[in-house]
């Protein structure tokens, strides 16, 4: 696949609409399996991960139609409970289909979803929660089978607010007997979207105002519904940080600033001026971003790990030294050597990235190692003087539906 070619060193000036959220649509596609009806989703991002999830839904008997941003799923006939290894290992978030298929059919077989370059990505919390609900687990080789006669709601205390584990427990609980209470649940906006969708389909879910406790009362069935996928806050944050790196002024339409609180605070600290309208954000970047003495990634509402690499790209050209600590994944600095090829001065010291801001980056050939690091390289390329070629673009296509169109609309040369 041809590399992405960006001619950088020019400030941005433009606007774009923000795509639908990858991390909202994937669990909601899994949730569609729980309905014995027709689910219509609009504003879905046309990305590789959605394509992969639709292949998985078809493999268990769902009828699926995908036209532009609209996906229609008919889940009235679930004919299999075995998820094919080929697709499961390609996308680890397929693990959330476990909860959905268990919830609907009380049985599921799945191969262990692979880890990936950012971490080993275990699913121990998911499996422990299922056991609490009466689920038997049996491994043979790389395949894992989970089954139970009765799926019973129970009190689940998550030792860490894992997004995937929270989603899987919700999905397994909506058609279970009795009530599940999740304590220490993840608070990400994508969890709220999943709950909104499920309630729209007839589920009985209450999120306590701090978001950390979720009560799910089992119901008999879920019915058809139509739901619009919210904007992707990570894609929006990516472009904001790209503008901080390259300079200029951009407007993002259709995005909810509320979901980007910690990111906007950091951008303001770097000298960016943000105006947040009803469903848009306008950013005017400073001539050169200010450094951030120390920032760490954290679970929501903290600074999101999915925007950590993109922050490194912006801080690489900041006026001063910054320290970024990644606390969610154990190996999420894969982009650093590639940024250093472009002239960045970043060292990893005791699991922290120490960034010494340089006046400018220079274009060259770099290679994406994973999704968000690849997007960060594109943002750095907008700032770098000259031509940058980003290889392995398939990683970026997993989460960005129209990177070229978006960057052109924002005034970049790609
Ligand atoms: C979701 O992954 C997102 N993916 C990730 O986005 C995001 O980085 C992550 O949440 C954190 O916000 C989707 O929503 C599809 P976790 P998930 O379970 O659910 C450990 C992107 O770029 N853990 O909250 O896998 C785990 O190893 C992707 O869009 C266990 O130890 O994240 C990690 O260190 C990347 N045991 C930490 O918790 C478990 O059973 C956070 O994982 C589960 C998780």
Radius of gyration: 21 Å
Which ligands occur here?
ligand EPZ
Level-1 CATH class name of the largest domain: Alpha Beta
Tally of individual helices:
14
Low-pLDDT segments, ≥5 res? none
How would you describe what is shown here?
The chain has 414 residues and is of the alpha+beta class. It has 2 domains: 4-19 and 231-409, Alpha-beta prism (UDP-n-acetylglucosamine1-carboxyvinyl-transferase, Chain); 22-228, UDP-n-acetylglucosamine1-carboxyvinyl-transferase, Chain. 32% of the residues lie in helices and 25% in strands. The protein is built from 14 helices and 22 strands. The longest helix has 14 residues, at 233-246. The relative contact order is 0.16. The structure holds ligand EPZ. Ligand EPZ binds next to helix 1, helix 5, helix 6 and helix 12. Ligand EPZ is lined by residues 22-23, 26, 93, 119, 121-126, 160, 162-165, 305-306, 328-329, 371-372, 399.
